[in-house]
Amino acid sequence: ERDVNVVLNPALRLTPHATHTTTSGQLETRIAPAGGHALIAGAELWHRVLVSQREKRFVALDSLVGERPVPRSTYMSGGVYAQDDWDAVPGHVRVVLGARYDRSRTHNDLTLNPEYVIRHGGLVIPAPAQVVLWPSTTTYDESWSANAGVHLAVAPHTAVTMLLATAFRSPSL
What we know:
By secondary structure, this protein is mainly β. It is about 0% helix and about 75% strand.
């Protein structure tokens, strides 16, 4: 939650407000399907909401202008993942293989600025000079990643590890 009071001068005060909410859930399982294998598999779901606005208080004019410089936005992402950790040669060679896939939805509402104007206690409809600042938009995106690695124990206190990975991560709010 963001609650700020900016006094630019005695006649003008800004009060930006924002609420950022994140809700998430994860389900994960760890199993040993066969000798030397440890499998981790799971699913996650994320939901983020951003609601912000700003008010300009013109003290001498007894007016309040409500603005929304950033649109009300939501971001939902769901993903599945799995990783196999295999002890190929117990105590000497370990192989790791993993992958993840996510699909996301980002949405923002239509945003008009100014949203409202209140003069001398009365709401002015329509708000003067109101323009579309952000059109309503919904986008879908996919993210993925994969990794493979090997860990070699070459002596009692010496090991060599190689890991290869590639990924694309979608932007968030």
